[in-house]
Amino acid sequence: MKYPFITVEGNIGAGKTTLSQLLSEHYNARLILEEFADNPFLPKFYENPSQYAFPLELFFMAERYKQLREVLTTQDIFHTVTITDYLFTKSLLFAKVNLAEEEYRLYQKLFEIINPHIIQPDILIYLNAPISKLQENIKKRNRSYEQGIPGDYLSSIQDIYTQFIRQHNIITLVVDTTNADFINNKAHLQTIIDALDKDYEPGQHLISLP
Q1: Would you name the residues annotated as active-site residues?
Q2: What value does the mean pLDDT take over residues 25-36?
C-alpha cells in the first residue's frame, strides 16, 4: 500500500464514515472514527449556536487530539494501514465558521500549540457533494439534532474546506460524490481503491466516479 495513513474528509453528510469503513474492510486497516456522539454540546449548539459554539469546538479538538495521539502513537502489528474519517485540521476549519473573531483567535492559538504533535495523513480523500446531496444524506441518517441544519451553514462549511484544500500541500483526491453510492455500486468503491494505487504529486487530483 502506497499510503499507510489515509484520511477521508468532507462536509456534514458527505459519507465520510461509510467510505472509511468500506476502505478499512478492503485493506484490513485500523479504523479511527470520530466519536461525535460523545460531545454533550452538539445538540445544544444546533439549538443555540452563539452560546455553545466555543465549548463545542474545544471539546471536539480535545477529543480528536486524545483519540489520534492514543491510536497513532501505539504500534499495531496486525494492521499496516490506518484510516480515519476526519482530519485534525477540521477543528480549525469548523471553528473559523462557528466562532466569533476573538474566540477564534484564542482557539487558533491553542490549535497551533497542539497541531505539531499530530501525525498528518499520507493522502486525503475529500468527498465533494452538492448541498442538496448533503441534505438528502442528513435526512436519511435521521439524527434529530441535525435535521434543522440550514443550507447556508452547509455552504459555509463547504467554502472553508475548499479554501483549505487549495492552500495545503497534502496529496488530496477530490471526489465528486453527486451520484456516489459506495455501498451498492462496486464500481464506485473500486474507483477509489484504484486511485489509491497510484503515485501523486502534492496538491489536488480530481477523481470522477463512473
Answers
A1: 85
A2: 92
